[in-house]
Amino acid sequence: MAPRSKRARARDVFDICGAIDSGLVDRVNLAAIVPEVFRAKRVDPGLLVRLREDFARSFHAPDFRSVELTVRDPATLRSFDEYYDRVLDLVSRLEIPGNP
Length: 100
What we know:
Layout: H1 10-21, H2 27-40, H3 54-60, H4 64-70, H5 80-93
Helix pairs in contact: 1-5
């Protein structure tokens, strides 16, 4: 199944992890905030479960280069897969349509 968005979102994956790592929000609060942000933007929060689909990781991964080029200290970056896995873990905890 092809992605609905034609734009990769590696920056969003990185930013979600950054919000948790900075202490700005914890996982519990972020799990409550994320669906509300999607609703406020009039985006179906159910799209988050599509991150588990086979194509999604490979679709977003190449865009991580744009993150690497813009962070202040590239030496502190982890791999895209680490950030992506953390977001998948967060998504699995959300109460959104399509989540098991």
